[in-house]
Request: fold
Amino acid sequence: MIYLDSAATTLQKPRAVGEAMLRALRTMASPGRGGHTPAQLAGDTAFACREALCRMFNAPSPEDVVFTMNATHALNIALASLVKPGARVVISCWEHNAVTRALRFLGAEIDVVRAPLFDREAALEGFRARIPGADCVVCTHVSNVFGFVMPVYQIAELCRDNGVPFVLDASQSAGAMKVDMARLGAAFIAMPGHKGLLGPQGTGVLLCGAPSRPVMAGGTGSESRSQLMPDFLPDRLEAGTHNIPGIAGLLEGVRYLERAGVEASGAMERRLIRNLGMQLRSIPGLEVFLAGDESAQSGVLSISHESVGSEELGAALGALGVCVRAGLHCAPLAHESAGTLERGTVRLSVSPFNTAQELRRVPALVRRSLDALA
Reply:
Protein backbone atom coordinates (compact mmCIF):
# COMPACT_ATOMS: atom_id res chain seq x y z
CA MET A 1 0.00 0.00 0.00
CA ILE A 2 1.10 3.54 -0.80
CA TYR A 3 -0.76 5.91 1.49
CA LEU A 4 -1.24 9.36 -0.08
CA ASP A 5 -4.22 10.71 1.85
CA SER A 6 -2.57 12.42 4.80
CA ALA A 7 -4.39 15.68 4.06
CA ALA A 8 -7.46 13.82 5.36
CA THR A 9 -5.80 11.75 8.11
CA THR A 10 -2.26 10.57 8.64
CA LEU A 11 -2.41 6.80 8.77
CA GLN A 12 1.23 6.07 9.55
CA LYS A 13 2.03 7.51 12.96
CA PRO A 14 4.93 7.33 15.40
CA ARG A 15 4.76 4.07 17.31
CA ALA A 16 4.63 6.00 20.57
CA VAL A 17 1.23 7.48 19.64
CA GLY A 18 -0.61 4.16 19.82
CA GLU A 19 1.38 3.03 22.85
CA ALA A 20 0.46 6.21 24.73
CA MET A 21 -3.22 5.78 23.88
CA LEU A 22 -3.26 2.21 25.17
CA ARG A 23 -1.38 3.25 28.33
CA ALA A 24 -3.93 6.03 28.92
CA LEU A 25 -6.82 3.58 28.56
CA ARG A 26 -5.26 1.35 31.19
CA THR A 27 -4.00 3.91 33.71
CA MET A 28 -5.78 7.29 33.34
CA ALA A 29 -9.20 8.56 34.38
CA SER A 30 -10.52 12.13 33.91
CA PRO A 31 -8.57 15.27 34.77
CA GLY A 32 -10.08 17.51 37.43
CA ARG A 33 -12.50 14.79 38.54
CA GLY A 34 -10.64 13.37 41.51
CA GLY A 35 -7.52 13.49 43.67
CA HIS A 36 -6.57 9.88 43.02
CA THR A 37 -3.60 8.77 40.93
CA PRO A 38 -5.49 7.90 37.69
CA ALA A 39 -7.11 11.35 37.65
CA GLN A 40 -3.81 13.07 38.43
CA LEU A 41 -2.05 11.14 35.66
CA ALA A 42 -4.74 12.29 33.24
CA GLY A 43 -4.37 15.90 34.38
CA ASP A 44 -0.59 15.78 34.05
CA THR A 45 -0.84 14.33 30.53
CA ALA A 46 -3.35 16.95 29.41
CA PHE A 47 -1.22 19.78 30.77
CA ALA A 48 1.94 18.34 29.20
CA CYS A 49 0.15 18.31 25.85
CA ARG A 50 -0.98 21.91 26.31
CA GLU A 51 2.59 22.91 27.15
CA ALA A 52 4.01 21.15 24.07
CA LEU A 53 1.43 22.77 21.78
CA CYS A 54 2.05 26.15 23.39
CA ARG A 55 5.78 25.81 22.61
CA MET A 56 5.20 24.63 19.06
CA PHE A 57 2.80 27.42 18.12
CA ASN A 58 4.09 30.21 20.39
CA ALA A 59 0.70 30.60 22.06
CA PRO A 60 0.25 33.00 24.99
CA SER A 61 0.12 30.25 27.65
CA PRO A 62 -0.78 26.56 28.05
CA GLU A 63 -4.16 27.63 29.43
CA ASP A 64 -4.93 29.25 26.07
CA VAL A 65 -4.60 25.85 24.39
CA VAL A 66 -8.09 24.32 24.22
CA PHE A 67 -8.79 20.70 23.28
CA THR A 68 -11.60 20.09 20.77
CA MET A 69 -13.00 17.13 18.87
CA ASN A 70 -11.46 18.28 15.58
CA ALA A 71 -10.63 21.45 13.61
CA THR A 72 -14.29 21.93 12.63
CA HIS A 73 -15.27 22.05 16.31
CA ALA A 74 -12.45 24.54 16.96
CA LEU A 75 -13.49 26.76 14.05
CA ASN A 76 -17.11 26.77 15.21
CA ILE A 77 -16.03 28.03 18.63
CA ALA A 78 -13.78 30.69 17.11
CA LEU A 79 -16.42 31.97 14.70
CA ALA A 80 -19.23 31.89 17.26
CA SER A 81 -17.01 34.01 19.50
CA LEU A 82 -16.52 36.71 16.87
CA VAL A 83 -19.36 36.64 14.36
CA LYS A 84 -22.90 37.93 14.82
CA PRO A 85 -25.73 37.70 12.26
CA GLY A 86 -25.11 40.14 9.43
CA ALA A 87 -21.41 40.55 10.18
CA ARG A 88 -19.20 40.97 7.13
CA VAL A 89 -16.57 38.24 7.18
CA VAL A 90 -13.79 38.27 4.60
CA ILE A 91 -12.49 34.85 3.54
CA SER A 92 -10.26 33.44 0.82
CA CYS A 93 -11.70 31.53 -2.12
CA TRP A 94 -9.87 28.40 -0.93
CA GLU A 95 -11.82 27.78 2.27
CA HIS A 96 -13.15 24.45 3.50
CA ASN A 97 -16.81 23.85 4.35
CA ALA A 98 -15.76 23.92 8.00
CA VAL A 99 -15.47 27.69 7.54
CA THR A 100 -18.13 28.47 4.95
CA ARG A 101 -20.91 26.33 6.45
CA ALA A 102 -20.17 27.63 9.94
CA LEU A 103 -20.43 31.22 8.68
CA ARG A 104 -23.72 30.47 6.90
CA PHE A 105 -25.00 28.88 10.11
CA LEU A 106 -24.14 32.07 12.02
CA GLY A 107 -25.88 34.28 9.46
CA ALA A 108 -22.74 36.10 8.34
CA GLU A 109 -22.32 38.08 5.15
CA ILE A 110 -19.47 36.24 3.43
CA ASP A 111 -17.12 38.41 1.36
CA VAL A 112 -14.91 36.15 -0.78
CA VAL A 113 -11.49 37.26 -2.00
CA ARG A 114 -11.05 35.84 -5.50
CA ALA A 115 -7.55 35.21 -6.81
CA PRO A 116 -5.92 32.78 -9.27
CA LEU A 117 -4.50 29.53 -7.94
CA PHE A 118 -0.96 29.91 -6.54
CA ASP A 119 -1.00 33.71 -7.03
CA ARG A 120 -0.17 34.98 -3.56
CA GLU A 121 0.27 38.59 -4.62
CA ALA A 122 -3.22 38.71 -6.10
CA ALA A 123 -4.64 37.11 -2.96
CA LEU A 124 -2.89 39.64 -0.76
CA GLU A 125 -4.16 42.56 -2.84
CA GLY A 126 -7.67 41.17 -2.65
CA PHE A 127 -7.53 41.05 1.12
CA ARG A 128 -5.99 44.52 1.24
CA ALA A 129 -9.02 45.88 -0.62
CA ARG A 130 -11.66 44.09 1.48
CA ILE A 131 -10.33 44.09 5.04
CA PRO A 132 -11.14 47.73 5.91
CA GLY A 133 -14.51 47.81 7.66
CA ALA A 134 -14.78 44.02 7.95
CA ASP A 135 -15.96 42.44 11.20
CA CYS A 136 -13.68 39.42 10.90
CA VAL A 137 -11.21 37.76 8.52
CA VAL A 138 -10.84 33.99 8.19
CA CYS A 139 -8.17 32.39 6.04
CA THR A 140 -6.82 28.91 5.53
CA HIS A 141 -3.05 28.67 5.75
CA VAL A 142 -2.95 25.96 3.09
CA SER A 143 -5.66 24.85 0.66
CA ASN A 144 -6.69 21.30 1.47
CA VAL A 145 -7.32 20.66 -2.25
CA PHE A 146 -4.31 22.20 -3.99
CA GLY A 147 -1.74 22.78 -1.27
CA PHE A 148 -1.73 26.51 -2.05
CA VAL A 149 0.18 28.28 0.75
CA MET A 150 -1.58 31.56 1.47
CA PRO A 151 0.33 34.71 2.56
CA VAL A 152 -1.25 34.55 6.01
CA TYR A 153 1.38 36.57 7.87
CA GLN A 154 0.88 39.53 5.53
CA ILE A 155 -2.91 39.10 5.72
CA ALA A 156 -2.70 39.04 9.52
CA GLU A 157 -0.65 42.24 9.45
CA LEU A 158 -3.35 43.94 7.36
CA CYS A 159 -5.90 42.80 9.94
CA ARG A 160 -3.87 44.27 12.80
CA ASP A 161 -3.45 47.56 10.94
CA ASN A 162 -7.22 47.78 10.49
CA GLY A 163 -8.25 46.48 13.91
CA VAL A 164 -10.00 43.42 12.44
CA PRO A 165 -9.81 40.05 14.26
CA PHE A 166 -8.06 37.30 12.30
CA VAL A 167 -8.84 33.58 12.46
CA LEU A 168 -6.41 31.09 10.94
CA ASP A 169 -7.46 27.64 9.77
CA ALA A 170 -4.20 25.72 10.20
CA SER A 171 -5.70 22.34 9.31
CA GLN A 172 -3.12 21.66 6.59
CA SER A 173 -0.16 23.57 8.02
CA ALA A 174 -0.02 22.59 11.70
CA GLY A 175 2.89 20.20 12.03
CA ALA A 176 4.10 20.80 8.47
CA MET A 177 5.20 24.45 8.55
CA LYS A 178 5.85 27.26 10.98
CA VAL A 179 2.70 28.60 12.62
CA ASP A 180 3.57 31.40 15.05
CA MET A 181 0.58 32.71 16.97
CA ALA A 182 2.43 35.65 18.52
CA ARG A 183 3.76 36.80 15.15
CA LEU A 184 0.32 36.44 13.57
CA GLY A 185 -1.48 38.19 16.40
CA ALA A 186 -4.43 35.94 15.61
CA ALA A 187 -7.64 35.98 17.59
CA PHE A 188 -7.88 32.21 17.15
CA ILE A 189 -5.99 29.41 15.39
CA ALA A 190 -7.79 26.12 14.74
CA MET A 191 -6.22 22.79 13.83
CA PRO A 192 -6.88 19.03 13.88
CA GLY A 193 -4.76 16.60 15.83
CA HIS A 194 -5.02 13.78 13.29
CA LYS A 195 -3.27 15.33 10.28
CA GLY A 196 0.13 17.02 10.41
CA LEU A 197 0.35 16.71 14.19
CA LEU A 198 0.32 12.90 13.78
CA GLY A 199 -2.20 12.33 16.56
CA PRO A 200 -5.37 10.21 16.54
CA GLN A 201 -8.77 11.03 15.08
CA GLY A 202 -11.13 12.75 17.48
CA THR A 203 -8.58 15.33 18.58
CA GLY A 204 -8.36 19.02 17.71
CA VAL A 205 -6.91 22.21 19.10
CA LEU A 206 -8.03 25.83 19.38
CA LEU A 207 -5.42 28.43 20.29
CA CYS A 208 -7.14 31.40 21.89
CA GLY A 209 -5.94 34.98 21.71
CA ALA A 210 -9.32 36.71 22.12
CA PRO A 211 -12.37 36.44 24.38
CA SER A 212 -14.28 33.26 23.60
CA ARG A 213 -17.85 32.03 23.64
CA PRO A 214 -18.67 28.38 24.42
CA VAL A 215 -20.76 26.46 21.91
CA MET A 216 -21.45 23.70 24.43
CA ALA A 217 -22.12 23.82 28.17
CA GLY A 218 -21.73 21.24 30.90
CA GLY A 219 -19.45 19.91 33.59
CA THR A 220 -15.84 21.05 33.72
CA GLY A 221 -14.68 19.78 37.11
CA SER A 222 -14.35 23.41 38.24
CA GLU A 223 -16.78 25.93 39.80
CA SER A 224 -19.41 23.21 40.02
CA ARG A 225 -21.84 25.27 42.11
CA SER A 226 -22.26 27.83 39.33
CA GLN A 227 -24.79 27.20 36.57
CA LEU A 228 -22.70 29.27 34.15
CA MET A 229 -19.63 28.10 32.32
CA PRO A 230 -16.37 29.22 33.96
CA ASP A 231 -14.99 32.54 32.73
CA PHE A 232 -11.43 31.23 32.43
CA LEU A 233 -9.62 29.05 29.93
CA PRO A 234 -9.38 26.23 29.10
CA ASP A 235 -12.39 25.22 31.26
CA ARG A 236 -14.69 27.75 29.59
CA LEU A 237 -14.52 25.84 26.30
CA GLU A 238 -14.02 22.26 27.49
CA ALA A 239 -17.39 20.99 28.74
CA GLY A 240 -17.62 17.28 29.44
CA THR A 241 -15.13 14.45 29.74
CA HIS A 242 -11.83 14.87 27.94
CA ASN A 243 -10.60 12.43 25.30
CA ILE A 244 -7.58 11.51 27.40
CA PRO A 245 -6.43 8.56 25.21
CA GLY A 246 -6.57 10.91 22.22
CA ILE A 247 -4.74 13.69 24.05
CA ALA A 248 -2.06 11.23 25.20
CA GLY A 249 -1.57 10.12 21.60
CA LEU A 250 -1.51 13.72 20.36
CA LEU A 251 1.18 14.55 22.90
CA GLU A 252 3.42 11.86 21.44
CA GLY A 253 2.77 13.09 17.90
CA VAL A 254 3.82 16.60 18.92
CA ARG A 255 6.91 15.27 20.72
CA TYR A 256 7.90 13.36 17.59
CA LEU A 257 7.66 16.57 15.53
CA GLU A 258 9.63 18.51 18.13
CA ARG A 259 12.47 16.03 17.75
CA ALA A 260 12.27 15.78 13.95
CA GLY A 261 11.68 19.50 13.38
CA VAL A 262 8.44 20.81 11.93
CA GLU A 263 10.06 22.83 9.18
CA ALA A 264 12.42 20.01 8.22
CA SER A 265 9.52 17.56 7.98
CA GLY A 266 7.47 20.01 5.94
CA ALA A 267 10.36 20.70 3.56
CA MET A 268 10.76 16.97 2.94
CA GLU A 269 7.04 16.64 2.19
CA ARG A 270 7.20 19.53 -0.29
CA ARG A 271 10.18 17.96 -2.07
CA LEU A 272 8.38 14.63 -2.35
CA ILE A 273 5.20 16.13 -3.77
CA ARG A 274 7.06 18.41 -6.18
CA ASN A 275 9.10 15.54 -7.59
CA LEU A 276 5.93 13.50 -7.96
CA GLY A 277 4.16 16.36 -9.71
CA MET A 278 6.98 16.81 -12.20
CA GLN A 279 6.85 13.11 -13.08
CA LEU A 280 3.06 13.11 -13.46
CA ARG A 281 3.25 15.98 -15.93
CA SER A 282 4.53 13.59 -18.58
CA ILE A 283 1.23 11.65 -18.65
CA PRO A 284 -0.93 12.66 -21.65
CA GLY A 285 -4.26 14.27 -20.82
CA LEU A 286 -3.42 14.72 -17.14
CA GLU A 287 -3.61 18.20 -15.62
CA VAL A 288 -1.25 18.56 -12.68
CA PHE A 289 -1.89 21.50 -10.37
CA LEU A 290 1.72 22.29 -9.53
CA ALA A 291 2.82 25.76 -8.44
CA GLY A 292 5.49 27.55 -10.45
CA ASP A 293 6.89 28.94 -7.21
CA GLU A 294 7.93 26.01 -5.01
CA SER A 295 7.27 27.99 -1.82
CA ALA A 296 3.61 28.47 -2.80
CA GLN A 297 2.72 24.77 -2.40
CA SER A 298 2.78 22.31 0.48
CA GLY A 299 2.86 18.51 0.40
CA VAL A 300 -0.58 18.38 -1.25
CA LEU A 301 -1.14 17.91 -5.00
CA SER A 302 -4.25 17.65 -7.14
CA ILE A 303 -4.53 16.07 -10.58
CA SER A 304 -7.36 15.78 -13.09
CA HIS A 305 -7.70 13.92 -16.39
CA GLU A 306 -9.36 15.40 -19.46
CA SER A 307 -11.58 12.37 -20.11
CA VAL A 308 -11.50 10.14 -17.01
CA GLY A 309 -13.57 11.14 -13.99
CA SER A 310 -11.76 11.88 -10.76
CA GLU A 311 -13.85 9.43 -8.74
CA GLU A 312 -13.15 6.67 -11.28
CA LEU A 313 -9.43 7.38 -11.28
CA GLY A 314 -9.32 7.49 -7.49
CA ALA A 315 -11.13 4.15 -7.24
CA ALA A 316 -8.81 2.57 -9.80
CA LEU A 317 -5.76 3.75 -7.90
CA GLY A 318 -7.25 2.43 -4.68
CA ALA A 319 -7.67 -0.98 -6.27
CA LEU A 320 -3.94 -0.92 -7.02
CA GLY A 321 -3.09 -0.02 -3.43
CA VAL A 322 -2.62 3.73 -3.86
CA CYS A 323 -4.72 5.53 -1.24
CA VAL A 324 -5.88 8.93 -2.49
CA ARG A 325 -8.97 11.10 -2.16
CA ALA A 326 -11.11 12.05 -5.15
CA GLY A 327 -13.99 14.48 -5.62
CA LEU A 328 -14.59 17.91 -4.09
CA HIS A 329 -12.80 17.36 -0.75
CA CYS A 330 -15.45 19.30 1.24
CA ALA A 331 -14.22 22.47 -0.45
CA PRO A 332 -16.55 23.38 -3.36
CA LEU A 333 -15.50 27.04 -3.19
CA ALA A 334 -11.89 26.04 -3.87
CA HIS A 335 -12.92 23.91 -6.84
CA GLU A 336 -15.11 26.69 -8.18
CA SER A 337 -12.13 29.04 -7.92
CA ALA A 338 -9.84 26.66 -9.80
CA GLY A 339 -12.42 25.68 -12.44
CA THR A 340 -12.69 22.06 -11.27
CA LEU A 341 -16.12 22.17 -9.63
CA GLU A 342 -17.78 19.87 -12.17
CA ARG A 343 -15.07 17.24 -12.40
CA GLY A 344 -13.30 17.47 -9.04
CA THR A 345 -9.72 16.30 -8.66
CA VAL A 346 -7.69 13.40 -7.35
CA ARG A 347 -5.67 14.58 -4.38
CA LEU A 348 -2.33 13.09 -3.38
CA SER A 349 -0.88 14.16 -0.04
CA VAL A 350 2.16 13.00 1.89
CA SER A 351 3.39 12.75 5.46
CA PRO A 352 6.85 12.36 7.07
CA PHE A 353 6.45 8.59 6.66
CA ASN A 354 6.31 8.57 2.85
CA THR A 355 9.49 7.81 0.92
CA ALA A 356 10.91 8.87 -2.43
CA GLN A 357 11.17 5.19 -3.39
CA GLU A 358 7.45 4.48 -3.03
CA LEU A 359 6.45 7.73 -4.75
CA ARG A 360 8.55 6.81 -7.79
CA ARG A 361 6.09 3.93 -8.35
CA VAL A 362 3.04 6.21 -8.47
CA PRO A 363 3.26 7.62 -12.04
CA ALA A 364 3.31 4.13 -13.52
CA LEU A 365 0.30 3.17 -11.43
CA VAL A 366 -1.55 6.30 -12.58
CA ARG A 367 -0.78 5.38 -16.20
CA ARG A 368 -1.96 1.83 -15.60
CA SER A 369 -5.21 3.09 -14.05
CA LEU A 370 -5.87 5.50 -16.92
CA ASP A 371 -5.18 2.80 -19.52
CA ALA A 372 -7.67 0.51 -17.80
CA LEU A 373 -10.32 3.24 -17.77
CA ALA A 374 -9.77 4.53 -21.31
User: Anything to note?
Assistant: The mean pLDDT is 97. Residues 2-10+261-373 form a domain with the Aspartate Aminotransferase, domain 1 fold (CATH 3.90.1150.10). The CA atoms of residues 15 and 252 lie 9 Å apart.
